[in-house]
Design goal:
single chain, alpha/beta, Undecaprenyl pyrophosphate synthetase, 9 helices, 6 strands, binds 3-methylbut-3-enyl trihydrogen diphosphate, binds magnesium ion
Length: 258
């Protein structure tokens, strides 16, 4: 880790980081192994990322594990991914709980087997009262699905006369999505070299900072995570304001806290 990265890690961390964990298949192919070998190797990077996020004080980490579109993959690969998901839930939950991690699965879980749905519920219940890092695993998640699902539920409330259309604000809408109560991601990292969002948190990423790296997911480590944080810390988030306005807000804030 470079000095700049070490320095960036001493600043107050982003509250919420989202990661598109991409590149498992290519990592395996580079080693003349089947794609699923990459998925299995990627589990260690997940463990590391969770540990690192907790250690630097990130409050929420949202990991994209399986998209609504990933069902289009060969049946065998989808099958292995489901088995892996089941195995991780079975084997890792106690350790996560011991580390005070609160686990939540976001996505349309209704398409998973009953057995997997039960495991998901048990894992969520077991970790529900933990007070450390919130770990969201996006599984059968699609940003468009999230927006549609939210819209349908709100429309039902309007139909039942419990909600006025004019009461649907950005805040109310956000609090009805999968990430209800969680601040929007400050930083989104994508490994694997592609520069796209692939239907991840399209509602929530309106003002998210993006960081793209060529590193393939199984090679993702503290140094790469640290570089992403350092890049984030060097950016000016303007949210529509001018740079001068942002500087003024920062200096007023520091005057108030003195
Ligand atoms: C990401 O790695 C994992 C999932 C989408 C489940 P990929 O499997 O997409 O790996 P590449 O992009 O083909 O290398
Ligand atoms: C995005 O990766 C989904 C996950 C990492 C779970 P993909 O590999 O599915 O994305 P595309 O298809 O290349 O856009
Ligand atoms: Mg991919």
């Amino acid at each position: 880790m470079t000095d700049t990265t070490e320095q960036a890690l001493s600043l107050s961390p982003p509250k919420h980081v989202a990661i598109i964990m991409d590149g498992n298949g290519r990592w395996a192919q580079q080693r003349n192994k089947p794609r699923v070998f990459g998925h299995k190797s990627g589990v260690q990077s997940v463990r590391n990322a969770v540990k690192f996020a907790g250690s630097i004080g990130i409050q929420a980490l949202t990991l994209y594990a399986f998209s609504s579109e990933n069902w289009r993959r060969p049946k065998q690969e989808v099958g292995v991914l489901m088995e892996l998901f089941m195995a991780v839930l079975t084997n890792e939950v106690k350790r996560l709980s011991k580390n005070q991690v609160r686990l939540k699965i976001i996505g349309d879980v209704s398409r998973f087997s009953d057995k997997l749905q039960l495991k998901i519920r048990q894992a969520e219940e077991l970790t529900a009262n933990n007070t450390g890092l919130l770990l969201n695993i996006a599984a059968n998640y699609g940003g468009r699905w999230d927006i549609l699902d939210t819209t349908q539920r709100l429309a039902e409330q309007v139909k039942a006369g419990r909600l006025e259309p004019s009461e649907i604000t950005e805040e109310l809408f956000s609090n009805a999505t999968c990430l209800a109560g969680v601040p929007d991601p400050d930083l989104m990292i994508r490994t694997g070299g592609d520069h796209r969002i692939s239907n991840f948190l399209i509602w929530h990423a309106a003002y998210t900072e993006f960081y793209f790296t060529d590193t393939l997911w199984p090679d993702f480590d503290d140094a790469v995570f640290g570089d992403a944080i350092a890049s984030f810390q060097g950016r000016e988030r303007r949210f529509g304001h001018t740079g001068e306005q942002v500087q003024e807000l920062v200096s007023n804030d520091s005057k108030e806290s003195n």
